[in-house]
Amino acid sequence: MRRIFIPFVMLLSTLFVVTSCLGSDDDEVTYYGDTAITSFALGTMNRYVHTTSSAGADSVYKTTYAGSGYVFYIDQLTCDIYNVDSLPKGTDVAHVITTINTKNGGTAVWKSAISDTLTAYSSTDSVNLSVQRELRVYANDGSSFRTYRVKVNVHQEEANVFTWSALPVSNQLAAISNMRATCQDGKVYVYGKNGDEDVCYSTAIGDGRNWASDNMPETETVNTADMTLSDNKYAPWLPTQDMSLVRLPKVTNTDANQLVLVGNRSVEQYPDDQYAVVWGKVEETAAGSENQPWIYYEHAADNHYLLPRLQHLQVVKYGDQMLALGGSGIGACTVTAFKQLYASRDGGITWKSDSRFALPAGFAADEQSFAMTVDENQYLWIVCGGSGQVWRGRLSQLGWATQQKVF
């Protein structure tokens, strides 16, 4: 009886399945004549990183990271697929696993990079994306297809690498004392004194080799009259020399900036100072905004990263931080000249060493005559009185192009 029962049950099951499939006219397959690529992502990526040991030996090691962390934008008008944030240098894009989704069940196929051969997309097969590739998607009714261009952007240089370039020495700049510099309208201006004469020289930001006599640029001044209005006890802490004014845009408010004023007090009046003085205020530019007061940043006892009181101190905005440089310490400050660049990422409260911004080898400047500025291409310039050296450098990622992300 058991031998009969099992085949019988199997027969009934088979008949039930066939009847279910054929017994209804409501189950229809819909075919669509339109389709598109709706999403594109990368899988796990291999990266080969070059390193140099302390002994100078070169080696390469392999690491991996999630390619899905890099968003690919799909421009449906131009049919371009690309990543705005480039993949890290050393990424292997010749063997890439991709995840592709289509509209209305369209079929995606890759066109060969060297012929007209088409290969069906597979989420488990790697594809060579070291060159721009053509990706087609066919409508599931077979009536049409769309062609996309897929480009994977990869950085050609490492992030967070600062590189200096030495430009030709300038005898004109070597003779300037009390030097200052600024960048305006595509030019770098260096100005100061040559003996008793006021002088100014400029060069195009893309040059730096040819300096011509020029008119003195207009420089921004700050009204410090309101610094003592709200609390007179801080009036003695106003800077009187080596002053720099930096404007930091507020990331939370497009109509506001953080102004930071950095400088030194008079050595004659305050010989015991070890640190520079820093003031700050919020500058609101929207209509109807009120004038905000200046605030003195007191030297807190637990702050071990105050800015030293340096000769001819200069401060600039660089990227999302400030950089400060000065000669030897004055007053009670005993720091050696040009010991380092000091970086502040908190609006001037703390100033720390940053290994990325080491001064270039061979740097030489008069302690009382050097200038620092930043141009519109995010190059940091340091011009040296006495030696006439001109240095220009940039943090790698600040030179990377930005692309449109919203369409």
How would you sum up the major sheet? 6 strands, mixed
Count of discrete structural domains: 2
Which fold name fills CATH's third level, the topology of the largest domain? Tachylectin-2, Chain A
User: What shape does the CA trace take?
Assistant: elongated
What is the terminal separation in angstroms? 72 Å
Layout of strands and helices, then pairs:
Elements (H helix, E strand, L loop, with lengths): L1 H21 L14 E6 L1 E9 L5 E9 L5 E4 L4 E4 L14 E5 L4 E5 L6 E3 L12 E6 L6 E7 L10 E6 L3 H4 L2 E8 L2 E8 L2 E8 L7 E2 L27 E9 L6 E9 L12 E8 L10 E2 L17 E5 L2 E5 L16 E3 L7 E2 L16 E5 L5 E5 L5 E6 L12
Parallel strand pairs: 5-10
Antiparallel strand pairs: 1-6, 2-3, 4-5, 7-8, 7-9, 9-10, 11-26, 12-13, 13-14, 14-15, 16-17, 17-18, 18-19, 20-21, 21-22, 22-23, 24-25, 25-26
Can you describe this structure?
- This protein has helices at 2-22, 171-174, and strands at 37-42, 44-52, 58-66, 72-75, 80-83, 98-102, 107-111, 118-120, 133-138, 145-151, 162-167, 177-184, 187-194, 197-204, 212-213, 241-249, 256-264, 277-284, 295-296, 314-318, 321-325, 342-344, 352-353, 370-374, 380-384, 390-395.
- The protein has 407 residues and is mainly beta.
- It folds into two domains: 37-151, Sandwich (Immunoglobulin-like); 162-399, Tachylectin-2, Chain A.
- The protein is elongated, with a radius of gyration of 32 Å.
- The strands form seven sheets. It has a six-stranded mixed sheet, with no helix packed on it. A four-stranded antiparallel sheet has the order 11-26-25-24, with no helix packed on it. The chain has a four-stranded antiparallel sheet with strand order 12-13-14-15.
- 6% of the residues lie in helices and 37% in strands.
- Residues 1-25 have low confidence and may be disordered.
- A hairpin with a 7-residue loop joins strand 22 and strand 23 (352-353).
- The protein contains two helices and 26 strands.
- The longest helix is centred in the N-terminal third of the chain and has 21 residues, at 2-22.
